[in-house]
Design goal:
This protein is of the alpha/beta class. The protein is globular and about 80 Å long. The protein starts with a strand and ends in an 11-residue tail after the last strand. It comes from Micromonospora marina. Pfam families: Epimerase, Polysacc_synt_C.
């Protein structure tokens, strides 16, 4: 499956690349916006592709920027596709439900869709996917969505600023990515793009509850799919600055006691492992699962790296001063015994492990090859 992406460096582009990796498809060929105006470069990248997903676009800015970043980008892409000896089999456009609504942005998105549809005579199947409001991990505040903006304000210790209340239909970016690439059914994504219908004021209240509960390491009530994904979105704005979270230890003549996990609602699974000196556990990532590490005995290092990025974040941890470190979704992570004795670690996950659908994808924290930026 040869996939070509425009806009691969953006919010939805990153989520799409992560999903491609999770389902085991080859790494996508990327077409940066700066290369769209070079028809020969577009043709060389897109020639013979099974799928070209056009994610590139501009959401905010002056009217001229919106026109050029959307309608202009589609026209440039078509100029390149005309030079392909073997055009892509399918071209999928990440359009918007605002297309054609009379605003500069909406009209530019509609014009882009018309341009791509009109060029389908070149030999590709065209799919115009109209996406609602998207949210998800590592969204750009004040640009991608109100969810990202509220999460950033709360993570910085502030409060969401609701300037106009209205109803929203929110779809997680992984679900949108699954729809765009035609992903097979999976545990952590849904190509049907189930939407959360919620008002802006209610969204602010819900995220504020997550922030207030999680500040001390407690897990809020996560009673349905969108609650987990909204919480994971908020957590992405808290990492790494919130961690490690110290645990309160109560001591008496009998010994020590501390609470490792306090969940306000929802299921979960707790398990423990021992690890020999110098040995690591992990080197994988999750798309939706929440996972917590607490070292009970010994010393260790927890290392994490966001998928598609280079920087590795590390936390030295030990049983003498127990702390909580939660694994953010879509970050490769592992724990390594750095001591000379056996390591005892407590793990908690928000869902019961299902070996047929584990939401666990192999990825080294320290890759041997250069990871895509």
């Amino acid at each position: 499956m040869r996939v070509v992406l425009t806009g691969a460096g953006g919010f939805l582009g990153w989520h799409t690349r992560v999903l491609l990796q999770a389902i085991g498809w080859p790494q996508a060929v990327t077409l940066p916006s700066i290369e769209l105006n070079d028809p020969a470069r577009v043709a060389s990248r897109a020639n013979g592709a099974d799928l070209l997903v056009h994610l590139g676009g501009v959401n905010r800015g002056a009217e001229s920027d919106l026109v050029q970043g959307n309608a202009g980008a589609a026209s440039a892409l078509v100029r390149g596709l005309r030079q392909c000896p073997v055009p892509p089999k399918r071209v999928v456009y990440a359009n918007s439900t605002q297309a054609g609504n009379g605003t500069p942005y909406g009209d530019a998105k509609a014009e882009a869709a018309e341009t791509l549809a009109a060029a389908a005579h070149l030999g590709y199947e065209f799919d115009d996917v109209r996406l609602p409001n998207l949210y998800g991990e590592h969204g750009r505040p004040f640009y991608n969505s109100v969810v990202a903006t509220f999460c950033r304000q709360l993570a910085d210790g502030g409060a969401p600023e609701v300037t106009g209340d209205r109803e929203l239909d929110l779809v997680h970016a992984q679900d949108a990515a699954a729809r765009l690439i035609g992903a097979p059914p999976g545990h952590a994504w849904d190509a049907a793009m189930p939407a959360l219908r919620i008002s802006v004021s209610r969204l602010a209240e819900r995220l504020s509850y997550f922030a207030a509960t999680y500040r001390s390491g407690e897990i809020p009530a996560l009673d349905e799919r969108h609650a987990v994904r909204l919480f994971n979105t908020y957590r992405s704005h808290c990492f790494p600055q919130l961690f490690p979270i110290p645990l309160t230890c109560r001591s008496d003549a009998r010994g020590n006691l501390f609470e490792a996990v306090r969940v306000h609602g929802g299921g979960g699974q707790t398990f423990a492992s021992t690890t020999r000196p110098g040995i690591s556990r992990g080197d994988h990532f999750h798309l939706a699962k929440i996972e917590r590490f607490v070292v009970l005995r010994g010393s260790a290092e927890i290392a994490l790296r966001r998928i598609g990025h280079q920087e590795v974040v590390t936390f030295p941890v030990g049983g003498d001063t127990p702390v909580v470190v939660d694994m953010p979704t879509m970050w490769a992570h592992k724990i390594t015994n750095t001591g000379s004795a056996e390591l005892l670690t407590l793990f908690w996950a928000n869902e019961i492990f299902d070996p047929t659908s584990p939401d666990t994808y192999a990825e080294p924290v320290f890759p041997t090859a250069t990871a895509p930026a």
